[in-house]
Amino acid sequence: MEQRFDVGRGVVVLERGDITRQDTEAIANAANSTLLGGGGVDGAIHRAAGPKLLQACRDAKRTLPSGLLPTGQAVLTPGFRLRAAHVIHCVGPVYAREGQDAPRLLASCYANALRLCREHDIRSIAFPSISTGVYGYPVQEAAPIALAAVRDALEANDTPHLVKFSLFDDTTLEAYGAAARDLFGGRAGRGS
Question: Does 190 map to a domain?
Fold first, then answer.
């Protein structure tokens, strides 16, 4: 069951789901800095989008200093065979490596993805829980950071209107739900 929260000028939706099946205009990818695919969410998105996504990522790499996307940054590609027209590739922090910078870098992923939405007039986006898989970010710490970054963007801007979190399992959904209730309080919308 989805949870909806009215936030700023938009709506935040939390649900358990498959990021590759979202019908939002964009989905976010928990990418690595090489943009060449990987495991987890990244691998699933590349498989679902088809081989043209890898070529688009190679093209994006050519525009980056040293060919790597820095941690906390994001780039946009087409979605190819996905329902979503766009993929916004975000490089999240590796929790054990980034130390005290991890919260700032994680928030930057979400902020930069939402900035790309505004720049390209993308009105809806679905996020996975960035960095909480193999990058080892504890989901109970990551959820409030992600949601606060989204809140700040929605309160300051008209676009996007809809931000979904398509979360892989019940534990992650529960962590995001608890963080959303703490952060957004009584702003739950219909369907929550």
Answer: no
